[in-house]
Write a structure and sequence with these properties.
The structure is a homodimer. By secondary structure, chain A is α+β, with helices and mostly antiparallel strands. The first copy, chain A, has four helices and five strands. A five-stranded antiparallel sheet of chain A has the order 1-3-4-5-2, with helices on one face. The longest helix of chain A is centred in the middle third of the chain and has 14 residues, at about 65-75. The interface of A and B includes residues 25, 40, 44, 90 and 91 of A.
Amino acid sequence: MIEPHPSGGYILEELVVGMTAEKHVPITEERIAHFAEASDDFNPVHMDEAFASKTAYRGRIAHGLLTASFGSAVVGTILPGAGAIYLSQTLNFHKPVRIGDVVVARVTVASIDEVAARVVLRCEGFVNGEPIMDGDATVRVPRRRRVR
Amino acid sequence: MIEPHPSGGYILEELVVGMTAEKHVPITEERIAHFAEASDDFNPVHMDEAFASKTAYRGRIAHGLLTASFGSAVVGTILPGAGAIYLSQTLNFHKPVRIGDVVVARVTVASIDEVAARVVLRCEGFVNGEPIMDGDATVRVPRRRRVR
């Protein structure tokens, strides 16, 4: 685990492959309701236990992009943090996530392109140690400013 | 534009490459606040105009996964709709999205794997006709139930 830079974000020259950061986020009914309002996604598989219990999921599940957002939050606020510009993201969903689960979102610096100032961050989500999602975020990271 | 199936979602046999659905979602301060609560992502580039105005974005922008969530909402609630199981998603971010923008999220059936019951949906986001993001969602879609 690493601490965020006091400036609010790492610059390119401070990043090293293998650096990692994580946060733990509990899945609550309130969190799912906020995501539904934000995304305008009121799919009953997320909102209605009676409906969801009759689906393949056998109960309410969190929106996939909600669980993905925790890794994105680590990227945007911890590693590399503020200043990083999001270019792309891949996401693979492995298992449904339910109310009461605590998602561990872990982000690891996977590769650094010094020329393009682009960094690939491996994003992984776990519940009780089991992978529920993964994917790669590609961001552009600011370089050190030259002092004249 | 197509209407959702009365059952709440399309089955595999009803889908055809080229089918499309879209929705228009206004970006408001309230929507960004809901997404911040949901994702626990209070990055000041999304929350604080004074901070954001000094960054490369030159003002507050919506979270990338917030704008991505509108396409996911179309997939989960319109095309193919309830019953689709999210397997994976790719996302490319082209331009920042700001408060006051209206995002048009368009989803198109790009390919259908009848054997695996997997469907790839092209997801595109536009503001004032300009692309702000795109990506592909891969979902598993239920087949027609056999009546005995």
